[in-house]
Amino acid sequence: MNLSTKNGAPRFEAAPERRPPTPDLPLEGLIALCHRRWALPVLAELARAKGERSVVLRHRLGAPPSALRLTLDELIAAGRVLPNPGYGHPLRPEYVLAGTAEALGRSALILWDLIRTRRLETTAGRKWSLPILAAVGRRPTRFHVLRSRLEPVTDRALVLRLKGLQRAGLIERSVRDTGPPAAAYRTTDRAAFLLEPIRRVARAAKAPR
Is the pLDDT of residue 202 over 60? Predict the structure, then answer.
């Protein structure tokens, strides 16, 4: 598919309408994981340190205490994090990755370090950012296809996150020369380094056994 320009805006040349194939990537676990802003960095830090106290996590990540508490509670409920049974003080609990979440923790650490290196923490930490990047990939993808892949995302949430990713230079929007014209989204070269690490997290984030 070739690109042309019209009035200074990129446009796809006319081509037979084809629905991009559904990726063989399980997105449900990634969507659930990204529901909390601090879930991915918490998993990354627990993988890095092989366990950590909540006060250290809070200071290292800059996370508000209440948000960190909710994140840890949800990760425990999901079977991804456990209170360290070898660390006894109830007022200074330590947390470790569950055995079933060790692969997820390693993948989260790789991804989060890449995000930090590029100073994308604010953008990547928003609720739908990483699932959108995973769902879009490198193919031009229509809005209704993304909405279907990312259920239960709302239209408003999807529009806002797509715009935010465009501002960050991670997503580009082009118009397909069809009747009527239709917008499609694809990741940019700037986002390419994130795609495979996100896929690894998505595969590892399937519901724990």
Answer: yes
- What token pair was written down for 138? 């490198």
Would you say 23 and 135 are in contact if contact means Cβ atoms under 8 Å apart? Answer: yes
Residue 199's H or E segment, with its range, is helix 192-204
Name every residue whose Cβ is closer than 8 Å to that of residue 151 and which is 6 or more positions away in sequence.
none
Which tokens sit at 104? Answer: 């997820």
- For the chain, the domains span 25-204
What is the CATH architecture of 25-204?
Orthogonal Bundle (1.10)
> 90-113, pLDDT tens digit by residue?
556 799 999 999 999 999 999 999
Distance (Å, whole) CA 115 – CA 144: 28
pTM of the model: 0.81
The 10s digit of each residue's pLDDT in 122-158 is 999 999 999 999 999 888 899 999 999 999 999 999 9
Give the DSSP H or E segment for 150: none
In the block, tokens 């490198």 appear at 138
Q: Are strands 94-97 and 81-83 parallel, antiparallel or unpaired?
A: antiparallel
Give all strands (DSSP E) within 76-198, no chain letters.
Answer: 81-83, 94-97, 141-142, 171-176, 182-187
CA–CA distance, 42 with 108 (Å, rounded to integer): 9
* Amino acid residing at 124: A
> Cis omega (within 30 of 0) on the bond before 83?
no
